[in-house]
Automatic annotation (TrEMBL):
It comes from the Eukaryota. This is Zinc finger domain-protein. GO terms for cellular component: cytoplasm; nucleus. Gene3D superfamilies: Classic Zinc Finger. It comes from Diplogelasinospora grovesii. Its main location: cytoplasm. Residues 70-79 have a biased composition (Basic residues). GO terms for biological process: ribosome biogenesis. Belongs to the ZNF593/BUD20 C2H2-type zinc-finger protein family. Residues 80-91, 101-115 have a biased composition (Basic and acidic residues). It is found in: Cytoplasm; Nucleus.
Amino acid sequence: MGVIAKRTMTKTRRKLRDLDQIKADLTSPRHLAQHKETKAAEDLPGLGQHYCIECAKWFETETSLVVHRKGKPHRRRVKQLREGPYTHEEANAAGGLRIDNGPEKAKTREIEMMT
């Protein structure tokens, strides 16, 4: 199963923030502050004091946050963030669409005809 198929099967209550949103949180403290302001501290675990930026999750205690950071799901998420989100060009290329269809097609046809 691909990432897209897996995401559609998850329930909305377990949906995390997207990678591009988290990337914006990491680069801009203002962006992260805006996200945290949308949540009421009384409704969050641990009154909103323990937050993992990379996974966009709240934790009850500092120790549970430390244990989470040592775990495999956290490391996997950090690796995804290092790779970066997909761009529109990458998505189009994966779907077989290319922006520069003109000259490149002609070159490949010439090469195929020569061989």
